[in-house]
Amino acid sequence: MTATDFNATVAGLASRCGWSTRPLKFVFQRSKQLGNGSEQLLSIYRDHGVIPKDSRSDNFNKASDDLSKYQKVDTGDLVVNKMKAWQGSVAVSDHTGIISPAYFIYKSTSTVDSNSRYLHYLLRSGLYFQHYGSISTGVRPNQWDLDPIAFDRTLLLYPPNAIQKRIADYLDHETAEIDDAISDQIELIEHLKERQRVQKYRLVTGQTLDTSRGRDAIQFWGKLPHGWSLQKLQWHFSIGNGSTPSTSTARFWDQDGFPWLNSSVVNAPSVTHAFRHVSHDALNELHLPVVQPGSLLIGITGQGKTRGMVTALEIEATINQHLAYLTPRSAQGPISIEYLRLALDVAYPELRQLSDGNGGTKGALTCHMLQQFRVPVPPKNLQAALVTEARRETARTAQAVADAESFIALARERRAALITAAVTGQIDVTTRNKPAAEQLEDDIAQGLHREN
């Protein structure tokens, strides 16, 4: 939809509802007032709008050490992330503070006949998100620059102030119910994952997880059942890592050559193919390891989640320096590769703690750490049964999590549709409708029934 088509659509909606329209520039004026650096830091979330930066634990964007160029935001200001407006990073602020100099800040100029909550919902509706995409340009994936002139010309639906308030009150109530339902499902997912972690720990150790135990591996595993023992990985597995051939040396790379893997592979349960390949010159001259199928690969560097994650290798391949391999010294060894995978999955938080801060601020596991790391070893004839039970638990959890995630996705779709329908006059907010949370549950139940 072009900007012209969008404005025509808005004008048509206004005519049908008996409302008026105004260009955004007559309601909001661009401003750039600097804070003094002492105000609270704000951030803009696609799902939550403008919020204090320290109010959430999942905001990993680091603020600048120098806050002198950060912009002042007052209650009622429109805040726009110009690179991600089309994804939902647009909101009217309920907070006062400072925010990144990269954002656009607009001051309201129509406080008498404008309701800031209505404008917040209007500018965050699906119809307007589509429009922001059409007036944004760029070549970087998912980061398109919003055209400020075209944004100023954006036509706003403008019902009388009393109706604006009624719509805002209705959406405040209805979206809060949906948000509560979503929060319940998010908590359920966390509970399911924690239950799975506890169950797997019980399988690998024969005991209940005690989160108060220290960082020492022996303390982490606790007292083992009779007939079990703690054994170092190096006793039964060859352990090493690889390297990355110079990308400027063309003869080291051959798309028809030998599979070469980086640490992204640990995000999958197993490795069945490679996206990049090296030449036999690289294998021979750089002494790259040739890792056999039936080995495990583990991420060993970085602050991201891949450090400590494990995957099963199903092809012959070589690896980069951010991965380590664990290859059984003997097929008849006392630890099956499937059981070791389970034990290392359980040990993930311990491996993370063990390697935090090693190698600077990034954190790193070393091959020596892995060689010295101990895992519980039950009798060989028991290991297959433990792995089977762990897989059943994983499947049960995965299904329950998938159901919860489906609920969340449908809830968010309904929330977005409800907002768009209300701010464009497509539903009568003056009548008593079924509460959003109840209607949501009915809709989802019908959807699941149709799927089954």
TrEMBL record:
UniProt keyword DNA-binding, yes or no: yes
SUPFAM superfamilies per the UniProt record, alphabetical: DNA methylase specificity domain (SSF116734)
One of the GO biological process terms: DNA restriction-modification system
GO molecular function: DNA binding
This protein's record includes keyword tRNA processing: no
Highest taxon in the source lineage: Bacteria
Keywords attached to this entry: DNA-binding, Restriction system
Domain Type I restriction modification DNA specificity: 237-383
Any single Pfam family the record assigns to this protein: Methylase_S
InterPro entries (UniProt xref): Restrct_endonuc_typeI_TRD, Restrct_endonuc_typeI_TRD_sf, Type-I_RE_S_subunit
Quaternary structure (record): The methyltransferase is composed of M and S polypeptides.
Family membership noted in the UniProt record: Belongs to the type-I restriction system S methylase family.
Name used for this protein in its record: Restriction modification system DNA specificity domain-containing protein
Source organism: Kocuria varians (Micrococcus varians)
